[in-house]
Design a protein that fits this description.
The protein is an all-alpha fold. It is built from 10 helices and 2 strands; from the N terminus they run βααααααααααβ. Strands 1-2 form a two-stranded antiparallel sheet. The chain is globular, with a radius of gyration of 22 Å. It starts with a strand and ends in an 11-residue tail after the last strand.
């Protein structure tokens, strides 16, 4: 039996290409109000565009998950994925209706850190999908949430190597990342829902006929008026949980990863024939 070290989910060329494709389409899906000129046909269908992009993102996220799974998501990694996704989905409703109390974000940061960017992307997407089913939050916004959470969790796996960090440096780095990423997630989701508003709030809603600077000002006002407090609460809760519970959770995740031998690929050699007796 021979062994070689590897990550729980190895990102091969096909996985990287699929992830780059869905990320590029995702950037367009989130930011199209600022990318399309006022005279474009897309702006003429501003109320239909989120539905179009939502359907497209569902297919692309599924393709990426399938591609990454094909490249090395073994049975043990699938089991870990199921446990963490179920835990994250169960944590999300805890803060329902309370501004910013969303403990699932800190778990996603730590899981992506330990298990790597490939596993992180799949975990973030699956967790958000499961939590949407659990809370009844299924709608055109769900694919955007899946992609944004996939990016959020993957980013933690792309941070500098943990072997170079000692003591409290790693939790501090993860807390800082969680603080910034919590606002980035909120801003991305604001972009996804903003074009839906129409004439509901004329002063801050998306105007298909306005220039990009005008719409940027409207979007900034929309974020401040609707989600700044929620995003700040999410960021603060993520920081506090990461600093207080982070070291213990990181240790537990790394212990589980070592025991599951995710990083060990096992291959079996054909048994040798016993020498014949004469």
């Amino acid at each position: 039996m021979t062994m070689s070290r590897r990550r729980p989910v190895h990102l091969g060329p096909r996985s990287l290409a699929a992830l780059a494709l869905v990320s590029a389409v995702g950037v367009i899906a989130f930011g199209w109000p600022f990318l399309a000129p006022p005279t474009s046909a897309l702006n003429a269908h501003a109320q239909d565009a989120p539905w179009l992009f939502a359907g497209l993102l569902v297919l692309l996220v599924a393709v990426v998950a399938a591609t990454i799974s094909e490249s090395g998501l073994g049975a043990k990694a699938v089991a870990m994925l199921g446990v963490l996704a179920a835990t994250g989905a169960a944590l999300r409703p805890i803060g329902a209706g309370t501004a910013g109390i969303e403990p699932m974000f800190f778990l996603m940061v730590l899981s992506g850190r330990v298990l790597g960017p490939g596993f992180g992307f799949v975990l973030g997407s699956v967790t958000m999908f499961a939590s949407a089913l659990l809370t009844g939050g299924v709608g055109p916004w769900m694919p955007f949430q899946m992609l944004a959470m996939g990016w959020f969790t993957m980013g933690a796996g792309l941070l500098p190597d943990g072997d170079r960090l000692r003591g409290r440096a790693e939790p501090a780095l993860l807390a800082a990342y969680g603080f910034v990423a919590a606002f980035a997630y909120g801003t991305a989701m604001n972009m996804a829902g903003w074009p839906f508003m129409g004439a509901l709030a004329s002063g801050v809603s998306f105007d298909p006929d306005a220039a990009v600077p005008a719409n940027l000002a409207r979007f900034a006002a929309y974020c401040v008026a609707t989600s700044l407090g929620w995003d700040l609460g999410r960021a603060v809760v993520t920081v506090l949980l990461t600093l207080t519970l982070g070291p213990a959770v990181l240790k537990a995740l790394r212990r589980a990863t070592r025991r599951a031998a995710f990083e060990t690929a096992v291959t079996f050699e054909a048994p040798r024939k016993a020498p014949e007796r004469r």
